[in-house]
């Protein structure tokens, strides 16, 4: 009776609330309300998100309204239209209204609001032309805005054909099987069949009409063609650079498994050899994969790297992996061996490490197959620990391997380990979960909750020594992480405590930090204020007992796009402007033409389809490389004006870059245009590429020291072996820029650059994560630069030794920089020489050669660096490097020595342009300013770009907000980047997807950004797939079922919302190693963490490691959407971020709208399904899209109501149930459970979507 009474009261409450709305009763509708603060009864005054969707007589949505969703409390309406065939060919943009109808339908939505946020346009919609066939394939697609409307021809066009007679080569694979150590070993070999030997080809080409052919033409006329066979496998992706086809072939074995990817350069060599495929072509240029007789990938080889091996247990979990370096003694462990991973009964990773063993892969696999005791190969917790390097590991050694182990990481779940720091029962007033189940009453329902299923602690060992970092995690009664306690390798700690609101947004964060336990320490407090829709409005920051500072105050337009940000309590007011497609167009637009920029320090304009400057400064020198208006998202020009000295106005004419692109959307030229002489070719960068996309030539100009005119500083010619550059010659013979001595460059077995003698770098040693551990520079006393990392790739320390000379003598100065949860410490020791002030030189000549020092003024050396050191001899100098130097904030950095907040203007790419703050006299000052070449090198001779003395200081964080090293390399996290060359020093671990082993940002740094060194992310679009990204219009490349698209620069909850910020909310006291990612309601924009130099400084995975044989890391995403617009794909705005959890993996979101959870009033899911589909009873078996066992595996993530809702149910015909569900879908989910021990709800939905995409056409009803 109580249950029914409770339900009746709820219904009456909802009915009363709906009466308060103005819902149109003559229409069918679906009304949704999400409270943003806790309530016990319906409350129209509470913070909430409301939507109503009106339905026509055919059950189709015809209008969607977000009620009072704008910052001003007005409605946003999205009309939905259909053509005469019921197809949605017009996709309207959301239209802000002038008021609210309280949910009532709009017969004619007001367009005034649209004009105010989008500008004047005749088409506030995207449009599709569909073919008149049952397939309804798209023939042409236009975008909102007059420049892209259907009539202009600036659209994306699709043509569907079949292949011709001699259009596509046919590669076949023959697998030779042998038995080695009782293991079946298959070696696939590709070939082009001779005439008469293959019924599917003639003369080595596919028979006419046997492949589907799709031609995609982007808005600028660039085309890409994809050929697909009848199985849906991509056979060929073809582009054309204007003179030749650029072909990439995908080759499959007899069992349908992809075994080879043959890039364009390999295709040309095979053609030149008359169809013969040599081993050198395969090893130097192709991607190769081998599988065992259970269809598991067991070996892979990327071009330029040695083979990598994988060994599985009986549960198909990867237990051992081995790369080329681990097969030698050239690794951290001084022995040949494997990286191992151990799992518990739930498939969660419990500990990993190095296993010293020289056995081959078949021998290792046979050992796993032969396990009789503990055949499941599961680890168990134990009260008797394994003791290693002074660390207690509370697990057994039952799983393989059982000996010769160096444990590197340990994860604990469910219960806290015995050495856990004590914790009170409250964190900022919030009660904690414990390992003991706690009885709770939630919404009148009795339940119990505990930390079961949650990660509780993680221990990570240093790679180069035996010290550990220990992390502990604390949760509130809802299972949300509200506290962390990290004990670093020096004995200090970082404790974070977070108060969350009802939706999970942080209200306040307290961070307590000590480098060592004996230190005094520092405490940072942050407060966050939100508006009625949980948009962040104010961010407050306080250090120790100093006065609280208002870091940021945000203002949004009616689409929730950030349009103004006041930083430093209005020290600078920064305006943002967008076009109709949501692309950022201006920073401080209205101030560009003012002589003094109206008190602003920086104004920036991005032009896409507008061209105002020079077409080509030298048609003879740069033939065909013209600046043209672009419509496909490429940037045509950027203009900027920046104050270089307070009180001095910059030139009224803006500086400008004009960009030229080839037919493959690669950047071929960046022409700098001096305001006083646009034709001078200053700071110009021009590139050529080989057929594989490697830079073959680079031309660069600059104004050098003691000169006022532009000169050629680089005319670089790159020599390659495969994709590895092996020498670089500078034909300009100019010592400025890159020296280009033509010296031989060598690589290790993993494809890592071992030296760069042109820069006098004689040796680079790497750890097992392929991160540089030691860089030796010739003639540099003290030996060079060393790095220390944890076993998950977190950088802990950098040491360098340089020579500095004073009045009397020279000294060797050794500097140690500690990176502890974002807090950066610098200390120095001096040896040799006599007395004398250290004031003459900041770096040795050798270090200067390694780094492009002409671009910088060294901090602490005259002329006096603004905002940093006092004049030579000042009393503060000695103390500066001895303690905490700085740490990041959401808007820049906090200079601890000066008690000064540093704020930053960043451009579209996250590059630091102007750093500024208040000095001790409370006056605005500029402390650093930078201009960049397109590929990231600083302009020379600017005079106001500073580099921190001895390689330390926040001013060294420049390009992408990342740290510039003494070698001139940028540390991007997973790899080191060389901006003067436009390439990386290490092989890309994700090149299986990118097919670009060493290149940066797909050779288009104006469109893509690569802030992690892993995967180029689109700069300025929303959830649309970039034309030039894999899977896009110009690069229709399939990677399994995952469409990889990570536009980290485009985070918002509405069409085109781009929120420029310096990592708002991403500082959590863990130094940007852990981003605070909110779970926003539908109307709330995601916290923007683009432009955050430290956001990706956390751990990285051993790519290709356990559960990741392809090298494409796990899927994670945050869904942010205010509409269901399929063309804009707003429901899948992807984030690229590093998270600190049990598997420490980089997360990429598949850019597709996926499965959703509804709700159910009954747990009898079969009855629910057949009630909705009565005719299917007896013909189908009912299954869950997100599997029912999730309720037990991951308690608390999904409710039973959601699990058994109709939205989560799938009907599989009985005739195929055994094959499809038991043999295929179940295997996919089992793999997911093994690889994702702690998924979010969205992880589960994304996984269900991938299954639906693959099998949905076989379900009844079908899932499209």
TrEMBL record:
Keyword RNA-binding: no
Gene3D superfamilies (UniProt xref): RHS repeat-associated core (2.180.10.10)
Domain (DUF6443) ranges: 32-162
Signal peptide: 1-20
Coiled coil start-end: none
Entry keyword set: Signal
The protein's name in its UniProt record: RHS repeat-associated core domain-containing protein
